[in-house]
Design goal:
- The protein is mostly helical and 122 residues long.
- The chain has one domain.
- The protein contains one helix and no strands.
- The chain is rod-shaped and about 160 Å long.
Length: 122
Amino acid sequence: MSVGDIAGLIAAIAFVLLVGVLAVPLVKLGRVLDEARTSVKELTDHSVPILDEAAATVASTNAQLANVDTVTTAAAHMSENLSALTSLFAATVGGPMVKVAAFSYAVRRAFGGLTGDRGSSR
């Protein structure tokens, strides 16, 4: 063997050792990537049902809000109707009722004046 052959053999052995030393971190990196892939898969498997449940909850909440809106609208209409009814009652019955009260007061005063009992009617 010549000196060049021995140098080539040493260079080949050094290259094989270099490849072996670099292969260990690459294998460890491969294991880390496998674990990361597994973790992402588990995270996805657990988050999809949560998202489905959240979507169902939002849909249910929207339905309940629509019901509340309906009740609120009905209450507003009922309040308007009650206000109109009160106004109608006051306009229809209020005026004549005041006249009847005034007439009855006048009649009591008149009868009180005939009997001479003016002090007790006040």
